[in-house]
Amino acid sequence: MLPTPVLERAREELVDWQGSGMSVMEVSHRGRPFVETAERAEADLRTLLRIPDDYRVLFLQGGATLQFSMVPMNLAPPGARVDYVNTGNWSAKAIDAARQRQDVNVAADPGAPYRTIPEPVQWHLSDDAAYVHYTPNETIDGVEFHYIPDTGDVPLVADMSSTLLSRQLPVQRFGLIYAGAQKNIGPAGLTLVIVRDDLLSRAPSDLPAPLSYRAHADAGSMLNTPPTFAWYLAGLVFRWILDEGGLAAMANRNYRKAARLYNAIDRSAFYSNPIDENCRSWMNVPFTLADPALDDVFLAEADGADLRHLKGHRSVGGMRASLYNAMPEAGVEALVEFMAEFERRHG
Ligand SMILES: Cc1ncc(COP(=O)(O)O)c(C=O)c1O
Q: How far apart are CA 250 and CA 177, in angstroms?
């Protein structure tokens, strides 16, 4: 979901942006008006996340999936040792991509189905890793870290696609953070990378420019035409979060939404969530029905009640409720009421 005020503002401005008589999609990305919009978006993001001055923010394309390859290409020489923690479907994909080029040490892997996170004391981190990669929130599995692992001097790299901007974050604990925009940030087509300055110099000089963080940083994310409409919309989302009270307000709201749904699931013998309690996701709540034969009925009736996109990912089945920033508390309330009513009739 995108926040309704953001969509309304975009609608208002769609055919006449800033009195230009044109859409923001029709102006030059190098013209002053767009550059100012782009800079304001970055400044607002820096305010929200308190991004330290020695970090660069890149507005890229290619999704988080391209980052699975760009991270190793930029941060490690070919064949060098890199550490990955595997806690779900997206970590596993990041590992597969890194293996094409690196000596990957999987420091921890509880195995599928992913329902837990091994304690860091059980991880087998290498002494010589170029970085440690992990996925703070596993979107498909609903497994989330509620702490930041300590990797000492080894840069910590995080795929924050489904958790960035859901709460406050000490950016200085990370070497690099990346996120596809299409959860809490904006529309698909934009990918954010927040990278510590000193890591930019690790990129080999023969890396093609579109794959090089340093080249993107040097060009102010305008090495080539950026996804201007997605960047503009992300800027509106950052403004909306600031107007709503910033990341502390998002965190409170997101905590309450998740707690409301997990409580409803835990109180019922009809619904269940299989994830260890200490690593349940605030953003993605998978749940199953006591009788899987009722799954299709549940989805059809939910759809009839205007509750959409509840089908779990095909790799895990069951249901999944995604509670990103733009999902109002009333939306969770409506889901919980629907679930109770469905249980009453079918349980
Ligand atoms: C945690 C995580 N990583 C990576 C991806 C892949 O992102 P993209 O489709 O932007 O490449 C997703 C998509 O949902 C995700 O949730």
A: 19
